[in-house]
Amino acid sequence: MKGEHHYSVTVEWTGNTGAGTAGYAAYSRDHVIQAAGKPDVPGSSDPAFRGDASRWNPEDMLVASLSACHKLWYLHLCAVEGVTVQAYRDEAEGVMQEDPERGGAFASVTLRPQVTIGAGDDAALAEQLHERAHHFCFIANSVNFPVRCEPRIVIQSSP
């Protein structure tokens, strides 16, 4: 597992409506994110910045990356520690603040995973494993703002 890993993506702007960037309102913010062997991801900017609300924006993707990375570590740790996760759903939220000098930056992201575990599993351990998952999350270790986790553990009812 140790080593250096490389990731290659292509982001191609598809928003030239005929006049290029002749003016702020003259072009679309649309783009396509591509990686070999994977489905394309339609992207744009946040609607607050003239983007298409039906497409993923970089801010959505950053919050999603934090959530997905945490989930993957959490599931790994649960498997290793004998906690059987039956369901996992995170309603994560990020807060970005605009700054006239720098453009803007994220102030925080809060993960709110609801995890359903087996009836005989240790709920306290299941909750504690979120701290360890956060410690190991590659993406959380790479950002310069707080990433909080507010987990909710649900014990699966007997059939």
TrEMBL record:
It comes from Achromobacter animicus. This is Peroxiredoxin. PANTHER family: OSMC_OHR FAMILY PROTEIN, OSMOTICALLY INDUCIBLE FAMILY PROTEIN. It holds the Pfam family OsmC. Signal peptide: none annotated.
